Structure formats: structure tokens, C-alpha cells
Amino acid sequence: MYRFLLTRQWVILTLIGLVLIPVMIELGFWQLHRHENRVAHNEKIGRALDAAPVPAERLTAPGRDVPDSAVYRRVTAKGSYDAEHEVVVRRRTNSDDEVGFHVLTPFVLDNGKVLLVNRGWIPADGPQTAFPKIPAPPRGEVTVTGRLMADETSAASGIKDVRGLPDRQIMLISSGQQAHALGKKVLGGYVEQTSPSADSPQLLAEPDHSGIGAHMAYAVQWWLFAAGVPAGWVVLVRRERKDQAEAAAKQAAEEAPEASPATA
User: Fold this and answer.
1) Cβ contacts of 238-241, under 8 Å, gap ≥ 24
2) 9: CB partners within 8 A, 6+ apart
3) CA–CA distance, 91 with 128 (Å, rounded to integer)
4) Fewer CB near the terminus (10 Å): N or C of the chain?
5) Which residues sit opposite 100 in a β-bridge?
6) CA 252 to CA 264: how far, in whole Å?
7) pTM of the model
8) Across the 264 residues of the chain, what is the mean pLDDT of every consecutive 10-residue run?
């Protein structure tokens, strides 16, 4: 009665189902791992933002990468802004998705080393080739507070590091490039300022560490699909068996009159 399962059509259908089940299960675990990574990342950001600020030089140094454990940590530094060598980072958006610039200002520490400070966002009101008008940073010795960030790269950001830009404009924040341009020792990474001054650029929003996305829902969805494959296969088998039984009964009923003897 189930000999139809040995036909080419059903063998192929069964093999496809056997392949889909482990694939869907693996996709479910992939989404689960993404969910777990997102939760861990959010917890890491939360711990970093809640920690008491420390001097920037405890966590970074010239020519060194900011360690992953130090990213988003609140840091402080005492020194003075070098507005003369200020640059802007092109094609950056604010919380309303408006396109503009980030303002990157060298901050000279008391020991002569430089800390790059992203003072915030300004709109791109004029032509892209012109240096925009920027609110001046505070003069004299000040203390800056902000979130420590790693140097930006094309691989991590997806932003191409275009060269040949207008004067004092950059695409990515790189302490190495700025050290070369300034001819000074620049601490690795940069700081997103969180302590505003009068008439300062629009401060950058705190990184999102509350949303977890839909990865868990996708994981459950893939596992339901995996469970649905054998259930669907059983339904199709029963339907095929029923259809074949009905076809056989119909054929037998049609052949019955032909097989009975003719009456005189």
C-alpha cells in the first residue's frame, strides 16, 4: 500500500525533507547564538556606561588599539583643545537621520600627548567641499568627559576611507592617521564627548543597549519549520495513500459490471 514511497518522485521529496530538517535546526541555533551575543553585547555596554569614569591614559596609549573591554568606558582628561587642527568627519547622521559632519578636535593633555575628541554632530548646511562653520571649543584648560571608542576601520564600519578629500575633512576616525597629520603622540582610539559646553555641537546619542532584536523569534521560527517538515511529509503520505485507495476503488467499481456475465 505504501509502495508509492519507492517511486522517484517520493524518494526525491523524502531526501529533500531529510536535508531541510538539520539545516533548519542549525539556522535556529545560529539565530539563538546571535541573540545571546546581542544580550552579552548590551550587558557589556551597560556595565561600561555605568562604571565610574577613569583617566583616559589608564585605558589607552599612543600607537595602541583600544582593548575591547575598554570600549564605551567613560573616561576623563584634562588639557586644552587645539581648534586650529580640528577636522570634520563626512557623511555622518544624527538621531533624526539628518546628514552632516562629526567634529573631531585634538585635545592636548598636560603631558603633551593628544586625545582625539568627537565633540558631536553639526548639519551640512553648505557645499560638501567647504569646511563647515563649527562652534568653537572652550578655551584654556578644561576637563573633558566622554565614551572611549576604538579607531574606525572600513572593515568594521563599512565606510570606504576615501582619499583626496577637501582640506580638513576625513571619512574615518583613525588615531594613527591623525598622529601622522599632527606630528604628535596621539592616544589610540578617540572619545565621544558627553559633557557639553556652551554652544557645542549636538552630542552623540548613547549607544543602544536595550534592544535585543528578533533573533530569538527567528530561532523559534526555524525550529517550527524543522518540526513542520516531517509533519507535512506524513500529511502528504496519508493524502497520497487515500487518493490511491479511492482511485483503486473507483477502478474496481468500473470493472465490476464488465466482469459480470451477460443476462439472457
Assistant:
1) 240/4, 240/10, 241/1, 241/2, 241/4
2) none
3) 9
4) C
5) 92, 123
6) 25
7) 0.75
8) 82 92 96 92 87 95 94 96 96 90 96 96 85 91 95 91 91 96 96 84 85 89 94 89 78 70 54
